[in-house]
Amino acid sequence: MRREVLEREAELSVLAGAVRAAAGGAGSVVLVMGEAGIGKSSLVEALRAHLPAEGRMIAGYCDDLATPRTLGPFRDFVGSVGTELSRAVLDGSDRDRLHAALRAELSWHEHPTVLVIEDIHWADDATLDALRYLIRRIADLPAVLVLTYRDDELNREQALHGLLGQASRSDHVRHLPLRRLSREAVRQLSAGGSVSADDLFALTSGNPFFIHELLDSVRGEHVPRTIVDAVLGRVRRLDPAVQDMLEQLAVVPSALERWLVDALVPDSGPGRLAALAGAEQGGLLTVSARRISFRHELTRRAIAGSLPSARLMVLNQRVLAVLVDRDGSDVAQIVHHAAQAGDVDAIVRYGPVAARDAARAGAHREAVAHFGLVLEYADRFDARERAGLLEQYAIESYTIGAAQRAAGAQRQAVELTRGLGDLLMLGSSLRWLSRMLWWAGDRGNAERAGREAVEVLDKAGDPRLFALALSNQSQLHMLMHQAKESIAYGERAAALAREAGDPAIISHALTNIGLSQWHLGDPAGQRRVDEALRVALDAGDVEDACRAYVGLVWNLLNWFRLDEAERYLIAGMQLAGEAEFLGFLSYLQVSRGRLELARGSWEEAVRAAEGSVDAFMPTRCAALTVLGQVMARRGHPEAASMLRSAWELAVELGELQRTGPAAAARAEEAWLRDDLASVCHIAARVYQEAERLGDEVHRAELGFWLTRGGQRVQPIGDHPYAVQAAGRWREAAAAWEAAGCPYEHAAALAESADPQQLLTALGMLDELGARPLATKVRKRLRELGVTRIPRGPVGETKVNPAGLTARQIDVLRLLGKGCTNAQIASQLVVSVRTVDSHVAAVLGKLGAASRREAATRAAELGVLDTKDR
């Protein structure tokens, strides 16, 4: 049944234009978003009429399974694409092969390809990984990648946010948010019927699917009260055999291959084809030679949701039996129907296979879900199998950043392993437990497990595992800034790993050694971590490459080498995101927060840090520190409370890399409130610890705050904070300016007695919105007798509802004129990097997803001048 597509002319024009550009070799991505029933699939289907004669459209679907199929939408391509891509998808374990095959499939075709992935809000991690790969390369392919999703089904934790964030940063991505139909469109659709268009609009609010369902189901003037009633009313008017067929098909949350329909639906009574024809004519099913699907997911849900639990179990058991009986069935589908049917034997048999397949493909969230389901029936496995399943579940949980869950499962695995008499297995499990406990914030038990791992593996006779246990000890010492001990353990581990030829352990040990050397001020430290990174990348070792990236970024940020840190940060986030190593991704995300804080891009800093507040303890501590510091610099009354929470976590973790930044941020907040006694009380003890450990970075910053509190210290080294603590404010100001740190630059200038320098500092602070320090500078200017002191941005932010600063309004006005960031930088005589930060802040304050949307929103708010609209 063909549906009329109204009020989508502009969207179709965008899609058709993308196809024409692809025909010329300029590929793009189109994101089609909206609520359920808004017409995403109808829009995509309507695009077929705009394809050139030689063009092709290939579609794949993500399904609402309890645990998504690994590479589900790409499996739908099999048979419609080349042999190499089909084989790579069916194998699924070699992501490089799959990505290369995808690119080749889209490259060789002479004419444009429209590759459609529907409902990516249900996508598995491996699918999102492949889409990330394509998005980065689409501009050079004769293809349009169309992704549809429901924006009302997204949540904060969903991995899709990362993909959408990447897409939004690309110049080759178009956004098509679909809106509901107008009252006039509803009138057109209902013309000639017995239902009032106004009543129909009131019932549906313009949702196209709802409108069609109500129109199709109406009898006389009776209109069903809900969409579910409408769907079920239409179903119940069909022949009983057709109803049975629809109920059977409704328990399969995906398009059904023809062979599956033939196996599930008996060819008796009116006949299978007659039943399919009746359902198709009734607008409930879409039928083709290869597959059958419900016309809309909401239709399927309405039918399945109306069935009693016992009936659902019987119908799922039928699907399960058919899938199990056919070679090559997707194990994720088997497990889904086994769980829905309550078939424990099938879960126990196929669940571990599905979990390991997902893990190999990089679909780590799906692996966690499968392992979790299997472990509900842990008593069906012997002790060794159970320990293995628990450890695999723990490792996958660790990979996605679920630290507490990982540590809990690994504890159980260790306890089971103790009774098996297998030293190698026990030692390896203990080493994993040590790592996971540290991520969970339990440093004391992490150290105990680490020491026991060394003791056990020293007796087990496996040099490789013993090297890994030694390197784990090296890491724990490095994290405590016990540099000499870390280097000693690390050198032993590296030597054994080289003998065993294990690059992963070599990289792990080199990272620990390099970071410890760096803490001691040895310039060879960074070179050693760079070497560790190269070794890991060459070996395809994602975890240790991510560790090296984190170490490099964190230490470069400590020294305010921001541009250098950002280069590593971008590469590290790309790697961690592609591999779905979410624990490291959250660590790098909070590093992004530190970077943006230093650059004065405080809105961006907050966004980055907020995404890591719910992560594992070390990351949460750093995120709260960044958030609290932004709040303190803005004069937010809750800053002290936020920083106290960060401090409590830092004390619990017991590492200088946590206590140092938290103490410095608390000291700064107290100083901004003129509480000098608290400044010294907060900073003194941690300063002494940094001095004892020989840590130049934290000693410099905490020493600076002690001088602000009135306590004398002896600054050592050339860190900008040490230079400023020594009273050399001009030299410090130059260092901060060169580093690209506007707040610190202004704070150094504010130490001058020259009114002109103070006015320069004041202008910078007002631009940043740094009210507390700006208030101090104004007070100083008054004390020096300056009478003409700028009032600041208070009035400006009040006259516009978005709260934009004067400079942000300037940037927005130029955005509205269509200027690029480079053109804006030229007109405002600032760097492109500064403009990048302003644009990000403007988009954030306006809640806009694009530059065009920001300009439109600003015009609505009355921010732009009439001449600029």
Give the secondary structure arrangement, pairings included:
Elements: H1 9-23, E1 28-33, H2 40-47, E2 56-61, H3 72-75, H4 83-91, H5 95-108, E3 113-118, H6 125-137, E4 143-149, H7 160-168, E5 173-177, H8 183-190, H9 197-204, H10 208-217, H11 227-236, H12 240-250, E6 256-257, H13 258-264, H14 272-281, E7 285-287, E8 291-294, H15 297-305, H16 309-325, H17 331-341, H18 344-360, H19 364-375, H20 383-399, H21 403-418, H22 423-439, H23 443-460, H24 463-479, H25 483-500, H26 503-519, H27 524-539, H28 542-558, H29 562-578, H30 582-599, H31 602-610, H32 617-634, H33 639-653, H34 656-672, H35 676-693, H36 696-708, H37 720-725, H38 729-739, H39 742-749, H40 755-768, H41 771-783, H42 794-799, H43 806-816, H44 821-828, H45 832-846, H46 851-861
Parallel strand pairs: 1-4, 1-5, 2-3, 3-4
Antiparallel strand pairs: 6-8, 7-8
Helix pairs in contact: 1-2, 4-5, 5-6, 6-7, 8-9, 9-10, 10-11, 11-15, 12-14, 12-15, 16-17, 17-18, 18-19, 19-20, 20-21, 20-22, 21-22, 22-23, 22-24, 23-24, 24-25, 24-26, 25-26, 26-27, 26-28, 27-28, 28-29, 28-30, 29-30, 30-31, 30-32, 31-32, 32-33, 32-34, 33-34, 34-35, 34-36, 35-36, 38-39, 39-40, ...
Structural commentary:
This protein has 869 residues and is mostly helical. It has a 5-stranded parallel beta sheet. Strands 6-8-7 form a 3-stranded antiparallel beta sheet. Helix 6 (125-137) runs parallel beside helix 7 (160-168) and helix 28 runs parallel beside helix 30. It is globular, with a radius of gyration of 31 Å.
